[in-house]
Amino acid sequence: MTEEPGNKTPRFILASASPRRTDLLTRIGVPHEVIPADVDETSGLPEAPGAQVALLAERKARRIAALHPEALVLGADTLVYLEGTILGKPSGIEEACAMVERLAGTWHEVYTGISLAGPEGRPAESSFEVTRVRFRPLVRKQIRLYVSTEEPFDKAGAYGIQGYGATLVESVEGCYFNVMGLPLARLIKMLDSRGYDYPFGPLVRRKESWL
């Protein structure tokens, strides 16, 4: 990471315990710490899925930013939306099977909200991305086999596209990384607009003369 004189890059905190999100931040060269945020995820939420994930992401970012005012904090939240119904994380085997069965052979939407808060009291900036995903038709044995991997249990909609869940997917329209839990193109634009310097950030802040 580069720094200009008198312009120290702030700490970057991911307010999420998701291993997929920390992996994606690492992929784009953003050094970060992980401090999960514990917030109310049930009350005062708008009905629209995009507004809902954006608000939850902002709650998480603001919670950790209040504890670490010197840091730039990223909050994120993901949900799966099928025919007017929000599919969260399954509570067990039967619910996971039921979710995957509902998704089989149909299109659904994956919404991920992201929010950047701080440093030093800078107001939060929040947004969301939506990606359409179509599952191929599945028989019950395939569904049971997938759920038996235990991959679905910590994921909205009961599947992970980056793992065994890739075998369930027939088509994706939009940002693939959004389905993993972090819309990278949108996040990069927000980091750039906030002036955050990282190895693949705006070239005007890079010191290498060959650029």
Automatic annotation (TrEMBL):
GO biological process: nucleotide metabolic process
Catalytic activity: UTP + H2O = UMP + diphosphate + H(+); dTTP + H2O = dTMP + diphosphate + H(+)
Subcellular localization(s) per the UniProt record: Cytoplasm
Active site: 77 (proton acceptor)
GO cellular component: cytoplasm
Gene3D superfamilies: 3.90.950.10
GO molecular function, one term: dTTP diphosphatase activity
Site (Important for substrate specificity): residue numbering on this chain: 20, 78, 162
EC assignment: 3.6.1.9
CDD domains assigned: Maf
Keywords, sorted A to Z: Cytoplasm, Hydrolase, Nucleotide metabolism
InterPro entries in alphabetical order: ITPase-like_fam, Maf-like
Cofactor(s) needed by this chain: a divalent metal cation
Protein family (similarity comment): Belongs to the Maf family. YhdE subfamily.
Record's function text: Nucleoside triphosphate pyrophosphatase that hydrolyzes dTTP and UTP. May have a dual role in cell division arrest and in preventing the incorporation of modified nucleotides into cellular nucleic acids.
HAMAP family noted in UniProt: Maf
Xref: PANTHER family: BIFUNCTIONAL DTTP/UTP PYROPHOSPHATASE/METHYLTRANSFERASE PROTEIN-RELATED (PTHR43213), BIFUNCTIONAL DTTP_UTP PYROPHOSPHATASE_METHYLTRANSFERASE PROTEIN-RELATED (PTHR43213:SF5)
Record protein name field: dTTP/UTP pyrophosphatase
Organism: Candidatus Glassbacteria bacterium RIFCSPLOWO2_12_FULL_58_11
